[in-house]
Structures are given as structure tokens and as C-alpha cells.
């Protein structure tokens, strides 16, 4: 994707990215060597649009490996001057992403929790802070972290199938969405809807999600990518520089807030997830999922 | 309601409640001895839901006595581990609450104004900061402070009678809603609607209030309590701990802001209400109310 | 308009106006001597309502002269105790205002850019911070700075002609709306709509603008002023003092933010507008406008 020696011209890295990295940070691969194990990336150089397809069956859960690959892929595209926009979708039928991988949060060491949570943060800082146009083509259910990915894009199109649902349902699992999930959600749907929805851990069928602005548009599933390409073309018709500065102006406050509280947020996550009561809830939830499958 | 020696287990008091009390604070009664003069409280231990009925005719106005009893009742329920949710409604026909008692703001001493305003703040900090699920079953008109009570709950259901109206109509009386009424209103209906509505002191018939989200749902009056119980059951189906942390995350900024500016807010109230022009407005308003009655 | 020796009684100048002026500030004329070159102002003393008509053909663009006259007119009315409200409309067919005058931003000196931008800020601080009731009667298209003027009023009524459009379309010209345009826009239409709309530089036909609250009401063009007068009467029915304090409470945070960052905002504008790439964009845009005309 990324010819050697090419320096990013249009895409100055966002401000949060110029701060010195935390020592135990995400080991970012150099630009040219990345393997596409869990995410398939294709860049159409003529349009400047990359297609990113999650292909980590059964449910595209956001494991440490998935998150790392996602961040690396985003960084590469960000630094590739041939790329101006990304469409994010799923290669797995019926699911966009099931959200954070519960396996990474269950019975692991404190060090593992820290590494995992830092990878979640890193992914979000890259995606929400991207200077590229980002369009989510949500072709399946998208709970919790899956919804976070969609919310972090510039535009959300969802397949109009009422069997597909989307929402920040953490409360249903007995866990709490971190403050930056909340800030993001408030920005998209407003304070009142966010308050009610986060407390109830609500998942919304696509048509309902559309009604209150959690997604921007519904189209028949077979027309989803075509529509995403059309929306992308509309956004890319604008001059990059003004659009990027505008995007940064709208998103800087939230990005800065996480960057300022990043270590504290990791500590909070570790302390919460290490509680025996929370571990028990998660184990019960996983049992339930296993039973459902069989 | 509250067996002796029971310590609250599920409900850690919210952060604002752990700060040292102001010396001239609300004289909170010990847990077991409270009289139900103006508010009837019944706890159904099987469901964990308390019903709180305002019964202070003619209009459930928020006098110092009413506010004190309201705060004490809320504190008791908060500390009662058998109680997880409260439904707030009125036992007086056609009125939920008429708001702050103008008698407490007219021709009284500076000390009285301070005590009264502290009681208003205390009630709001307890209600908005409650870790219980709070549902307002608005079965009558609900102007000014009555609207504040409804806005502070987790969910608002209103009788669909267009003769019942709700809103923050302070401007119509020539007075100004304090900043925390405003912050709360903005969180529920958004900045634009709040700005317009507060300047005009608008009261909205129930159907209109529903349209822009000032109330969440309308039902025929005879089904109001049944619906409130159903909504409560839905909220109580969630694990308490995650729901409470989520609620606190959503509401902490507003609660903290009042706690930080509490004494200043009291001073502002005293200085405003002591003005002869304001006293005159309030006297004229009371005259008008008296004439209406006769 | 303004009898000699009259001190403003009802309208205490807003807080931002009591700070010492910046030395190179807007040269405000003394109260009695103003010429109506670009804006026609008529005060009806019986109703207390002034009508302000933009009459600077061909498109009421906001030149330095226009902005200066606008600020002076607003200041006079603010200080005139006979005036309680202003209706702002256009005397030029089909256009309310085309926004900031590009001629003022093209090929001029750094000193000129500074003077111009200070005049833009001054106009906005006066209009958004006015203690009078302000109603925009938008009787034509209203892009960019024209939209800013409408957004800064208390209420927006637009002619229901779908050929008239309104919006903050700066991004389409390759320029970026400053943070206070953005803050204002977020307050009126919410964060999500503002983010999308600012990035795309969207202009909305009147009916669409109404749908998401960018304007409050649509009426047939011939009834626009009649409707504006009726809305004004409704707002003036409220006691001035409470309404003004409420308005100030809602708007103070935004006004304070610009006052605190005024010099920085001017520097940002100069540095951005002085870029050769931006100058080139603006020249191309002006060429396009010229071709359209001929």
C-alpha cells in the first residue's frame, strides 16, 4: 500500500500523536511490513479510498491482536498520501464487530489488562483522530466496542435489516463504558439519549438506531458498499486541508481528554476488571454465549 | 421502612455527600423517626420499589417543610438496602407540584432565604444524585420547581391530558432559574430548546412536552402508575452496580458544579430575591393567584 | 434614535463590554452621529422595536464598513431605552447576507486583516451578547457570515422559498470557520449535525434547515415581517430584567471564550488567510463568482 520513502504530505499527524509515547506503548510496525490476518485492507489508488474489512470469525471480536492490527493499518493509511478516505465494514456475515474480546478481560494478569486497555485506547485515538474521511458500512450487529468503532467514523450507514442491532450495551454485562465512550456517545446522540441508553445498556434494531441519529442512514444490505462509496465521494469533493482542520476542531476536546487521563483510565480499567464480582459476571456471560451457540 | 442497624450495601453515597456538611445545613433526622406529613412513602419490599406521593394540598408547593421532608425521605430510602427504585407522583388531583413556595420567598429574613435555598439545593443534590432508579409519574401540572423534580428523575411519564402543563416558567414571574436548573434543562432538551424556553418561561401542554423530549412518554392518566411500575421493572432488570456507576458518570459534572458553588448560589439567591422590584413582582403574582381562586 | 443625555436604564452592557478596549479596537462613533449607508434602521417607539434592514447591494457582503456600521447601530439601539428589540432583515431581494466580504481577505496587508477580523468579532460580541430581543427575518440566502448573524439572534424565521439556502459553508471555499462560529452552531443544532455540516460546508434549502432546527420557523415571504413582529411581541411580553439575565446565563460561556482568546483568534486568522494556498483558493472562488455573474 505504501511506497518506500513516501512522507505523508496532506496528513499531519493529529496533536495527540506528537506527544512522547508511553514506554509500554503499542509496538507499531514499520510502514511496509504488515500482515493482514484479521483485517483485509485494499486501497484503490485512483479514488484514494481504502476498504477495510474485518475478517476475524466468528464475530470480529476486538482482541489484543485485532486491535493492534487495526491501529497499524490505520497508521499506514494515514501516512500514505495516496489514501484520503477509509470505508470500514465486515467480511463476516451478520456481524460488524461484537466489541471488546471478553477473553482478554477474564482471568488474565494485571500487565495483560494494561496492555489490552492501552491497545483499545490507541485504536480509538487513531480512528477518532484520523485526518482521513472515515465511513462505517455497518453490515451486521454492532454492540459495545463495535458500536464505538462506528461512532468514531465521520458517517455511519447501516444495513436496514431489523435483525441487526447496535448500541453501547456494556451495562447489560455488568460493566461500565469508560468516560470517553460516553463523551463520544453524547456528542452523537445528545446527553439525554446517552444517559438513558447507557444506563439501560440498550441495543437498537437498525431502524430505531436511525430514528435518533445513532446511524445516519439505512440502505438495503446489497447496496451498502455502493452507498458508502457515494458518500465517500461526496466528502472527498471537499478540499482536504479545510475539512481536516474542521474535523480536528470538532474532535480535539475529546481526544485531548483521553490523552490527558490515559494512565488513570488504564488504572481504572484494571481496578474494575480485577474485581471478583466483575470476573464472575463476565464468566457467567461467556457461559451463556457458549450455551447459545450449542 | 428502614430496619435498625442496616448499613447501605449496594448504594455507596454519591461523592458530593461525603464532603463535610456546611454547619447551618439541613437538620437530617435519624433514619427511623420520620413523620409523613406532606409526602406519603410506601416501600414494596418484594419489588424493591418505593412509591412517594406528594400530598400537600392545594398544590404541593415546595415549602421549607416539604423540601426537608422530601430530602429526609430520599435519604432513608437511599440507605435502605431493600429499596432500589422510587416512583414519584402526586396524591393531589390535577397537580404534580406547583414548584417553590412563593410564601418562603416573600417578606422573609435573609436567614430564612438562606435556609430555604439550602433546602432546595439539598433536595436536588439528593434526587439528581440518587443511586436508586427514579421515575416521575407526572399526573398533573408541573411548573418551575415541579418540573425540576421531574427533570431530575431517570425517566418521566406524564398523563396525556393536554390540560396538564410542564416547564421552567420562572421568567414569567420575573425571576431567573439558577444555573443548575439551566444545566439540567440543557442536558435533557438541548441548548437551543432550553435557551428559547427559559427566556420565554414556556409551559408546555403534555403532548407538546413529549414532542421535544421534556417528558419521555405519555399514557392515559389511569394507566400512569401501572406504566411507571413497568418502566421501573425494566430499569431494575439491570445489575445495580454498573447502572449506578453509569448514572454517576453522566451526572457527576452537574452535581459537582453546584457543590463547588453552593454558598455563592445561596448568596445570589438572597441578593436577587431581596430586591424590592422582585418582591413587588412576587406580591403581584400572589395577588393574581388569590383572585383566580376566588 | 437616541435622545441626548439618555443613559441606558434597562440594558446594562454585557460583561464582555466592560473590559478595557484593545487599543487598536473598532473606532465606535459617539451615540448621536451615525450615517445609514449600508444598514437602514427605524425604531418604532410605540412598540420599542427597531427594524434593521441590510441594504448593501448586490449581496449585503460583510465588508469592514458594513461591520462597523452594524456594530455602531447595535450599540446605539442597546443604549436607547426606547428600544427593547430588533428585527434584522434585508432590503436586497433574494439575499439576506452573503457573509464575510472576500475582498477584505484577499491581497491585503496584515494590519488590514487584523482590523477586519476585529470588526467581525466586535459585531458578533454585540449581536450575540445583546440584551435586546433579536429576531432574524431571513428573506433570502444566508451563507457563512450571513448564517452567523441569523444564528446569533434569539429567533430565526425564514421565507419558505426552497431556493433560499442557509448554512456555514466555509469548508467549500477551502477555509475554516473559527471556533466561536462552531461553538454557536453546536449550541443551535447539536454536536453531531454541526460536525457533519461544518466538514461538508453544507448549505440547506429553507425547508431542510427548518427540519433540523437551523431556523425556527418558515412562513411565506410576504408574511415574514408580520410574523417577525408577532414573535417579537411575544418575547417582549416577558419582563425585561429576568429575560436578560436568563439570556446572559445561556450565552455568557461562549462570549467569555471569545473575549479570552480574542487576540489569539486574530493571529490565527491572519496566519491562515496569509497562506499562499488560501489566497489562491479565494482568488479562484472570486473568479468563479465573476464568471457566474456575466
TrEMBL record, chains A, B, C:
Enzyme class per UniProt: isomerase
Pathway membership: Lipid metabolism; fatty acid beta-oxidation
Domain of life: Eukaryota
Localisation per UniProt entry: Mitochondrion matrix
Gene3D superfamilies linked to this entry: 2-enoyl-CoA Hydratase, Chain A, domain 1, 6.10.250.170
Keyword Transit peptide: yes
Signal peptide region: none
Subunit structure: Homotrimer.
The protein's name in its UniProt record: Enoyl-CoA delta isomerase 1, mitochondrial
Gene: Eci1
